[in-house]
Amino acid sequence: MKSYGFFMIVALMLLAGCKERKTVFEEFTSFERNSWQKFNLLSYDFEIDEPVGDYDIFLLVRYNENFPEKFLVFNAELIASHGEQRLRKYNLQLIGFEGNMLGAKSDGFYEVKKLLFKDLSFRETGKQLVEIQSMMKDYEVGGIEQIGLRVIKH
């Protein structure tokens, strides 16, 4: 009986430690001919009404079998309403080393999710901006159906 009580206390502590996650923004950009051009800068702006708390920002890539490389190379820049900027370069693997498509398959495409910025706290409310730029070697990259941004508060 003592061990049952111990496990109940541990379970309650774990549940109390879980944070509610809420999607506060999600938007996708579709591409003509499923092709992302190198200088087509993707801009996603979203409002932060509650700067207190932690936010995660994810990139979602929906692609098909015509993607020509193993990795999608891109820059992601966060420009906060108070002027702070954060720029990072990413190499997101879409094709496995055995040639298999990575991610969840749905409606003829695959979707891969990449965490761009983790546990962000914003200094103030207002409009935030995330810009995504292709850094692929070719001017045009086929096989990209949509790219999206998701912001989650926890």
Plain-language structure description:
Helix content is 10%, strand content 54%. With 154 residues, it is mainly β. It has a single domain (21-153), classed as Jelly Rolls (Sandwich).
Provide a compact summary of the structure.
Helix content is 10%, strand content 54%.
Q: What is the fold-level CATH name, i.e. the topology?
A: Jelly Rolls
Mean pLDDT: 90
Question: What general form does the structure show?
Answer: globular
Structurally, the number of domains stands at 1
Number of strands: 11
CATH architecture annotation: Sandwich
Q: Fraction of residues in helices? A: 10-25%
Approximately what portion of the residues adopt beta-strand conformation?
Answer: over 45%
Question: Any key phrases for this structure?
Answer:
154 residues, mainly beta, Jelly Rolls, five-stranded antiparallel sheet, 1 helix, globular
Secondary structure layout:
Blueprint: H1 2-17, E1 22-30, E2 35-37, E3 42-48, E4 55-63, E5 71-79, E6 85-93, E7 104-106, E8 109-120, E9 126-134, E10 140-142, E11 144-153
Antiparallel strand pairs: 1-11, 2-10, 3-9, 4-8, 4-11, 5-6, 5-9, 7-8
